[in-house]
């Protein structure tokens, strides 16, 4: 299948690209710079231009950002949209988080409808952030599933960067489903909603300093930054980046995935479990890791929400990577990057 992948240099997208190429698809991926295109190309030296090519999209928040990228010869049959800001640095939440997420999503859908009529499948990376209801706290009596929606408002979104990020994913995904309903385009949509994505970075793509947001936790542990105090866990559940990537690709391959939303969740984890796993598997980091009794490591005393990702298990037949495997591979990759 001829696929357009957005944001190919991202943590998740670089793995999606890997899976696409391994499964024989032909890919054009958008990047923001020639340097990132060159880096990605260097990871796949044996793949020709016919199977891996690049399109430059500098800012997905521009209304017509994807107008040219969606055109290709041979034409695209599927689009995987992962590009979206994921960080908590935003000063201007509207401009730095909400606009690129929402306009990025509606923009690419409009461009496909206008200029790429051969596209039949669109897959969008959404997030547990678009499912979680923060006002309910840890909500131990609740089980999160594909049916849950974050009820956040635009006013709440502007309060701080974390709320802004969660809202950006919520509004972007809602806008995608609204588009499908109102515009009745010639393609289906599949959305994938992972919580914190863990697992190996690709060391030549990411340095320790610029590691993406979800890997900061493991990096900080390895660097001794949490020795005295764990930083708060945003969520107590994770998805492995390889599992998530395979599901992106299966979503364009499997008919049953069309027009479905999938919660993608491997299971629970706590900061302390992460530290203990690293200590058990990589004793060389023992000095850097928080010991017993350091605050902020455990699950909340009253318990946390449960999760139900059984729809993804049924439709895709996925066997989730274990927390142990995910952690071991993540630490090995961070080690290779210099940790
Ligand atoms: P990264 O930060 O590694 O990747 C984000 C990608 O989006 C990069 O390619 C980045 O380009 C691109 N991007 C961001 N803003 C813009 C913009 N304004 N214009 C053009 N490109 C832009 O994050 P992840 O790989 O972790 O995230 C990928 C997707 O997965 C996102 O949609 C994110 O919301 C979602 N997700 C991630 C989770 C996680 O824990 N990692 C959890 C749940 C969902 P550049 O590299 O040039 O900055």
From TrEMBL:
<protein>
    <submittedName>
        <fullName>NAD(P)-binding protein</fullName>
    </submittedName>
</protein>
<feature type="domain" description="NAD-dependent epimerase/dehydratase">
    <location>
        <begin position="3"/>
        <end position="257"/>
    </location>
</feature>
<dbReference type="InterPro" id="IPR001509">
    <property type="entry name" value="Epimerase_deHydtase"/>
</dbReference>
<keyword id="KW-0560">Oxidoreductase</keyword>
<comment type="similarity">
    <text>Belongs to the NAD(P)-dependent epimerase/dehydratase family. Dihydroflavonol-4-reductase subfamily.</text>
</comment>
<dbReference type="InterPro" id="IPR050425">
    <property type="entry name" value="NAD(P)_dehydrat-like"/>
</dbReference>
<dbReference type="GO" id="GO:0016616">
    <property type="term" value="F:oxidoreductase activity, acting on the CH-OH group of donors, NAD or NADP as acceptor"/>
</dbReference>
<dbReference type="InterPro" id="IPR036291">
    <property type="entry name" value="NAD(P)-bd_dom_sf"/>
</dbReference>
<dbReference type="Pfam" id="PF01370">
    <property type="entry name" value="Epimerase"/>
</dbReference>
């Amino acid at each position: 299948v001829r696929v357009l992948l957005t944001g190919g240099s991202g943590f998740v997208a670089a793995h999606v690209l890997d899976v696409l190429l391994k499964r024989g698809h032909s890919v054009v991926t958008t990047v923001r710079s020639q340097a990132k295109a060159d880096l990605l190309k260097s990871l796949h030296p044996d793949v020709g231009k016919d199977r891996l090519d690049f399109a430059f999209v500098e800012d997905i928040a521009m209304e017509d950002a994807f107008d040219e990228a969606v055109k290709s010869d041979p034409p695209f049959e599927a689009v995987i949209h992962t590009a979206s800001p994921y960080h908590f640095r935003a000063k201007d939440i509207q401009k730095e988080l909400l606009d690129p997420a929402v306009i990025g999503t509606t923009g690419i859908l409009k461009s496909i409808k206008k200029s790429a009529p051969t596209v039949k499948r669109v897959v969008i990376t959404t997030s547990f952030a678009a499912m979680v209801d923060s006002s309910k706290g840890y909500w131990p009596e609740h089980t999160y599933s594909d049916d849950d929606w974050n009820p956040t408002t635009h006013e709440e979104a502007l309060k701080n960067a974390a709320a802004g990020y969660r809202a950006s994913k919520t509004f972007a995904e809602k806008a995608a489903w609204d588009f499908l309903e109102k515009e009745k385009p010639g393609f289906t949509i599949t959305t994938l909603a992972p919580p914190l994505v863990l697992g190996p970075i690709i060391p030549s793509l990411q340095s320790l300093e610029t590691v993406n947001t979800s890997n900061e936790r493991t990096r900080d542990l390895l660097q001794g930054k949490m020795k005295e105090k764990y930083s708060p866990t945003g969520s107590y559940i994770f998805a492995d980046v390889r599992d998530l990537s395979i599901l992106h690709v299966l979503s364009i391959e499997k008919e049953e995935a069309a027009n479905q939303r999938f919660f993608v969740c491997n299971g629970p984890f706590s900061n302390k479990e992460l530290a203990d796993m690293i200590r058990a598997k990589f004793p060389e980091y023992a000095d850097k890791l928080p010991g017993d009794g350091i605050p902020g490591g455990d699950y909340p005393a009253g318990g946390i929400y449960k999760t139900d990702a059984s729809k993804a298990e049924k439709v895709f037949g996925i066997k989730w990577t274990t927390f142990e495997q995910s952690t071991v591979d993540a630490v090995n990759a961070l080690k290779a990057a210099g940790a």
